[in-house]
Amino acid sequence: MTEQPVPGEGPTRPVSVSLHEGTVAALEARTGKRGMSAYIESLVQRQLERDRLRELIEDSESVNGPADQAPVEARRAILRGETAGSSDGAGSGSGSSGSDGGVVRI
Question: Is the separation of the CB atoms in 26 and 36 below 8 Å?
Fold first, then answer.
């Protein structure tokens, strides 16, 4: 039995897709005619990754319930560089994160 290649692997093959003229014009302006396939390939791979991540989150939430949004938002603030005033006390030594060290479980 032959395994299917994962996204981004295996030989390439031509496919036909329909796009609006404005989308094609913007795509050509960004990539040139010869860069379209690589650009679209990367976009499709990224979307497939996001779809799979969403499925994993949904599976986890069906088993464990939804993630606590307060620590999630605190981590997002840190990633955005907005560490001052975060409500979880990360880095202040006074947080109530318990024994898990503030790990967000999803």
Answer: no
Question: Which one, of 45, 41, 40, 67, lies nearest residue 56 by Cα?
Answer: 67
Does the pTM surpass 0.70? The reply is no
pLDDT in tens, 11-70: 999 999 999 999 999 999 999 988 999 999 999 999 999 999 999 999 999 999 998 999
Asked if residue 95 lies in contact with residue 89, where contact means CB atoms within 8 angstroms, the answer is yes
